[in-house]
Amino acid sequence: MIEGPATGFWGTAAGFGADLNLTVELIMGLALIAGAFLARAKRYAAHGACMTAVLLLNLVPIAVVMFPSFDGLVLPRLTSHLRKRYYAVAAFHGVLGSAAELLGLYVLLVAGTNLLPEAWRFKRWKLWMRLELALWMVVLLSGIGTYIVWYTPLLRR
Amino acid sequence: MKRYIQKVLLCAGLLGVFASAAMIHGSQVAQAGEEKNASASITIDNFSFTPKEITVAAGTTITWVNHDDVPHTVVSPDKKFRSKALDTDDQFSFTFTDAGTYNYFCSVHPMMTGKIIVK
């Protein structure tokens, strides 16, 4: 057995880090949906705690797994290789994912703190939060797509 | 005059023999040099290294060529060699000067492994 990075557990070509990242992101996606149901049930404190936890915890896989991978494998050749699906799907996921995380943090600042001045705060809560949830789901799907393109040769052929 | 011609012919013959010997020796040296700088190639296709295991002589340069449409790397776990991310048709070469067994893997897809045996 060759010593190297640990292999993954989903039975694809991915390493342990990528598989763990996918698993964590799927759980986070489910947690966001659960959080939305908490809001519908008017359990706003639990809703806020759930959404805040997901948003902040998501910074860890971004910093540890996704950004280093994007920086090392995609960014150096992005401009010349954007037509290849390997780069295109990752770029799409990266751009939308960054937007979702930033929008989520903005919503969190407006909804959970008084840090932002009044002019920067939105009033239509449901619209912004639903937009964020929809965007997050698109990002999650594009993340699954990225995983398939990057790590599953049989599914891609 | 006849002796003079004989001496000239003898010298020419000797020169011819020396020249032939030198050419043969040079050819052998060149062949030995070629053997010393032997090369082999390993292809990366469908998420695997082919051949997965290869035995070569010391001094052999091995070139990995990625034929997949996704990037791969060639990394020695003991840090003896490490390629950058190889995109489609990119190559990475490394010369194995010391005898031994060299394992390697793709850092993006760790299930992709291979072995070089240098004798």
Could you explain how this protein is built, in words?
The complex is a heterodimer of chains A (157) and B (119). Chain A is mostly helical and 157 residues long. Chain A has one domain (16-152). Chain A is 75% helix and 0% strand. Chain A has helices at residues 16-40, 44-57, 59-74, 78-81, 85-112, 125-151, 153-156. The longest helix of chain A is centred in the middle third of the chain and has 28 residues, at 85-112. Helices cover 29% and strands 33% of the residues of chain B. The radius of gyration of chain B is 24 Å and the shape is elongated. Chain B has 2 domains: 1-36; 39-118, Sandwich (Immunoglobulin-like). With 119 residues, chain B is of the alpha/beta class. Chain B has 1 helix and 7 strands, in the order αβββββββ. Chain B has one helix spanning 2-36, and strands at 39-45, 48-50, 53-56, 60-66, 91-96, 100-105, 113-118.
Write down the Rg of chain B: 24 Å
Runs of chain A with pLDDT <50, length 5+? none
Q: What does the main sheet of chain B amount to?
A: 4 strands, mixed
Q: Structural class of chain A, please?
A: mainly alpha
Helical fraction of chain B = 25-40%
CATH architect. name of the largest domain in chain B: Sandwich
Could you say what the CATH topology of the largest domain in chain B is called? Immunoglobulin-like
First CA to last CA of chain B: what distance? 62 Å
Order of helices and strands of chain B: HEEEEEEE
CATH-level-4 superfamily name of the largest domain in chain B = Cupredoxins -  blue copper proteins
CATH class of the largest domain in chain B: Mainly Beta
Q: How many separate domains of chain B?
A: 2
Q: Strands of the biggest beta sheet of chain B: in what spatial order? A: 2-1-4-5
